[in-house]
TrEMBL record:
Transmembrane segments: none annotated. InterPro entries: Rpn13/ADRM1 (IPR006773), Rpn13/ADRM1_Pru (IPR044868), Rpn13/ADRM1_Pru_sf (IPR038633). It comes from the Eukaryota. This is Pru domain-containing protein. Keywords: Cytoplasm, Nucleus, Proteasome. PROSITE patterns: PRU. It comes from Nadsonia fulvescens var. elongata DSM 6958. It is found in: Cytoplasm; Nucleus. One of its GO terms (cellular component) is nucleus.
């Protein structure tokens, strides 16, 4: 099983509790890595018009049961999801970059810019299913 979606990186400042999107386009690929582990690969897409200090790619091996994804509802400027690790408390945040078609189709009932689309919600469910521990 594999899953791909467009997402940029977000820098999180622990002291101010402020999440700031890092300029540039990205893509996340999640797939089975064998032995029950899951591989997360973030890669940059295209060239950013601003100079950034982010790497072109980053890969992590995730252990089922140790990490989970959640929507960061407090972020009011975009659709942000967080990967949180239970063992260390570490977290990684990403901003979803696929246009929110739910928002564009529903002009008179305009959705909040931070509200997840149906596609976003499906991605979140699939991501968490991939990280579930086998019973």
């Amino acid at each position: 099983t594999s899953l791909e979606f467009y997402a940029g990186k977000v820098e999180y400042d622990e002291s101010t509790h402020r999440a700031t999107p890092i300029p540039g386009k990205g893509k996340i690929t999640i797939k089975s890595a064998g032995d029950g582990m899951v591989s997360l690969l973030w890669t940059a897409r295209g060239k950013s018009s601003t100079a950034t200090t982010i790497d072109d790619s980053e890969e992590l091996l995730l252990f089922p049961g140790d990490a989970y994804w959640r929507h960061v509802k407090q972020c009011g400027t975009g659709r942000v999801i967080m990967l949180k690790f239970k063992s260390s408390g570490d977290r990684m945040m990403f901003w979803l970059q696929k246009p929110n078609e739910d928002n564009e189709d529903n002009v008179e009932n305009k959705l909040d810019v931070a509200q997840l689309s149906k596609d976003d919600e499906e991605i979140l469910v699939k991501l968490n299913e991939m990280l579930k521990e086998e019973e």
